[in-house]
Design goal:
The chain is built from 14 helices and six strands. The chain has helices at residues 2-7, 10-20, 37-43, 48-62, 65-79, 99-123, 128-135, 137-149, 157-164, 183-191, 216-233, 262-267, 282-289, 304-314; strands at 168-171, 174-180, 201-207, 241-246, 271-275, 322-327.
Length: 328
């Protein structure tokens, strides 16, 4: 049984105790039945090849009273403080011993939370198309998991938690997370005269998979939409700064890519607050090639970005995360 497997894991046993210490869930968690679930999954852009497996796993979950109690506890914790920046619950990944149900349990948490998420979106008057495209990142991340592992699941369940907690929205090519300025980035913006400081709201930019080129035109449209969107739907929050924390801001990329490339043009939007000193070679390999564990010697050279990432590593170089900002 799923819950017994979790109790056997020392780390997750503590997580369970903390979750159960709050008493009985105050939020009712229900799942669509087997007839309605496929339509719900398709609305969330879940890959077609995952649908039948998730419907079958739903039956296993529903037949396990302890697992359903755990589902209610998770949904109750997840929807608490809906929309509060940093207030979301970060669901852990379950160990391999829990099998397919453990790999997909967080998917069912998000599905059971859908009524509460949509109610929050209605309260904020979030346009239906923005809501749909934002929540469809669940399906996108299932596709990323399948591309890398060949199975159904989520590599980083906490990431989808941002979308379902009202903290992140897909607005065209870019995703915008309601966040707060960190110490060094906030200080850099303050030193530039923006009248802001660490801890104040900012929009953190993210670049999703499977959403076309990162062209300057696409980014401009996203930024225009974001300025209007957050002013209208979060008028009590003032966003003066956009930030990005990514290997895409590693200036070493300019050695390999032409000045008019999309990535270089994206970099040029930002002022770098600071750069990491610890190498993170797996991040670009994961995002560019789909699997961080691929042997460097075998990385393809089909595109300019593939050649840049692979050739730099093969030459003994390393990639580093950059932390950049610009005024909105």
């Amino acid at each position: 049984m799923l819950v017994e497997e979790l109790r056997a894991d020392e780390k997750l046993a503590g997580w369970l105790r903390d979750l159960e210490s709050g008493g009985a869930p105050r939020t009712e968690a229900t799942l669509p039945d087997a007839v309605d679930l496929p339509d719900v999954l398709l609305d969330l852009a879940v890959p077609h090849e995952c649908v039948n497996e998730l419907v079958a796993l739903r039956a296993r979950l529903a037949a396990d009273p302890q697992a359903m109690t755990l589902l209610s506890l998770c949904v109750d914790r997840f929807v608490r403080d809906m929309g509060v920046i940093g207030g979301g619950w970060e669901p852990p990944a379950f160990p391999e011993s829990t099998g397919a149900l453990g790999r997909t349990f967080q998917v069912f948490v998000f599905i059971a939370a859908l009524p509460y998420v949509r109610a929050y979106h209605r309260q904020r008057d979030i346009p239906v198309d923005v809501s749909r495209r934002t929540l469809a990142d669940l399906g996108r991340n299932l596709a990323v998991h399948r591309r890398r592992t060949g199975t159904t699941g989520l590599l980083v369940p906490w990431w989808i938690g941002l979308h379902f907690h009202g903290e992140l929205y897909q607005l065209g090519r870019l995703q915008f997370q309601r966040a707060r300025l960190g110490g060094r980035t906030g200080q850099a913006a303050a030193d530039a005269g923006l009248g802001t400081r660490p801890g104040e709201p900012c929009l953190s930019l993210h670049i999703a998979d499977f959403t076309g080129p990162l062209s300057p035109e696409a980014c401009d449209r996203s930024l225009d939409r974001a300025r209007e969107f957050f002013a209208r739907h979060y008028p009590e929050e003032h966003y003066a700064v956009a930030v990005c924390h990514s290997w895409l801001l590693d200036r070493q990329l300019t050695r390999y890519l032409p000045t008019d490339s999309n990535i270089v043009r994206f970099q040029e939007r930002f002022r770098i607050a600071h750069e990491e000193t610890k190498a993170d070679d797996k991040a670009p390999v994961a995002f560019v090639f789909g699997d961080p564990e691929l042997p460097v010697a075998d990385l393809p050279r089909r595109t300019g970005v593939e050649r840049a990432v692979g050739d730099h590593l093969r030459a003994g170089g390393h990639w580093y995360g950059g932390h950049g900002w610009f005024a909105l």
